[in-house]
Every structure is written in C-alpha cells, then in structure tokens.
Amino acid sequence: EVQLVESGGGLVQPGRSLRLSCAASGFTFDDYAMHWVRQGPGKGLEWVSGISWDSGSIGYGDSVKGRFTISRDNAKNSLYLQMSSLRAEDMALYYCAKGSESYVQGGMDVWGQGTTVTVSS
Amino acid sequence: EVVMTQSPATLSVSPGERATLSCRASQSVSSNLAWYQQKPGQAPRLLIYGASTRATGIPARFSGSGSGTEFTLTISSLQSEDFAVYYCQQYDYWPTFGQGTKVDI
Questions:
Q1: Which of the four pLDDT bands, split at 50, 70 and 90, describes residue A116?
Q2: Nearest C-alpha of chain B: how many angstroms from A2?
Q3: What is the mean pLDDT of chain B?
Q4: Any chain A CB within 8 A of the CB of B30?
Q5: Quick check: B100 and A45 CB within 8 A?
C-alpha cells in the first residue's frame, strides 16, 4: 500500500523553527518528486515547496521563500521541511504529497493525512 | 507566479444533475493542469491530470477539458459522494492552486 505519514508538527512560538518529516512507503521513493502543500484553517490549498527525485530541482512558494528549506533522503525514503522564522500566517495543516513525475512540474497523486503546525506565543 | 482563478466559488446542484466547474490561468499552462477533490476532514484526492486524463480509479462521470488558460471539470451526474470542494492546480511552472469551488446540495 502506498503511504505517506507526516510528523513533526506542533505548537511553536513566532520566530522559532520547526522541522517536519514525511515517511514514504509502498513505492519507489527515489523515482518521484515530492511536495509539501499546506492548508490554513478554513482556507484552500497552498503549494509550499517541491523537490525533484534527485534533489536537483527545488522550488518554493513566494510566501515561504528564504525561510523554509525542503530536503529528502532517498536512502531513508523520507522528505523533510525545515521551517524557520515562523509567522502566525504559517499556521496550517501541512500535507506531504507524492509527485506523479520525477520532476517538480507534475500533479500530486498520493497525499498523507497531514501534520498540524500552530504558531502562537 | 501563475494565478489560478476558479468559478463559481460555490455551486449548488441536486443529485443526478450535471455540474460544470471552471478554472482560468493568468497565462498559458498548456495542458499541465490537474483537478483534485477534497471532502471535509480528508486529504485531497487527484481526479484529473494532463487537463483531461482521469487518475486511477476515478469514475467516468468525471471529465476534464481545456488547454492554455481555460479549463473545465464536468461531473455528468452528481452522486451524493461528489459533494466536496474541488481545486485546480497548474504545473507548467512551479505549482499553484486555485482557491476552490465548493459543490453543495
């Protein structure tokens, strides 16, 4: 069974950092791009970041550029999102999603259940 | 950034009726467009990619069309399980999502 399980969410103060993880199973992880997508309370989907199969192509949404860093460890079938300088507007449910292609420019065909990030003092 | 605009924001339909959802891109994205369905408390599910290709396991009542800047998702005969929020997403550039269309009864 293809599965993505996110972890690492929680309550964090504004300006602090947090690292999210996504454990993948049931497919050949290093064949596909991976993404982080977030959804604020009562809001729509926002693409946060994506990384190609070999980490050679990485992109970020404008709202997180310079503050968030995506990475992957193909040996561990894992995806990460290092978030720094967190703001109230970063508070959201963060989904890990499998790309349908090896490069970032593609759809997202498998999604995890998400991990919640709360930013508050 | 490519801005995706969906219309209408809410679409009220009855079971068995046809639903037509629209998505417009601020610049051409060719056929690099996907549609997703999201139900309350659930993760999104991929319905359509390449503007018109149904993803694995998606019923034939879902169809997508369009290219360039104008796209349409059609649900031919709404079932009770189809009431949800639908998002379009372009992937011709760095991905961006539309704001969603809620299909309700």
A1: very high
A2: 13
A3: 96
A4: no
A5: yes
Q: Which residues contact B33 (CB under 8 A, 6 or more apart)?
A: B23, B25, B48, B49, B50, B51, B64, B66, B71, B88, B89, B90, B91, B92
Test B46 with A107 for CB contact under 8 angstroms: yes
CB-based contact B94 A59, cutoff 8 Å: yes
Nearest to A46 by CA among A3, A99, A90: A90
Q: pLDDT higher for A33 or B93?
A: A33
Phi and psi at residue A29, to the nearest 5°: -55, -45
Contacts of B22 (CB under 8 A, 6+ apart): B6, B7, B8, B70, B71, B72
% of chain B surpassing 70 pLDDT: 100
pLDDT at B63 over 90: yes
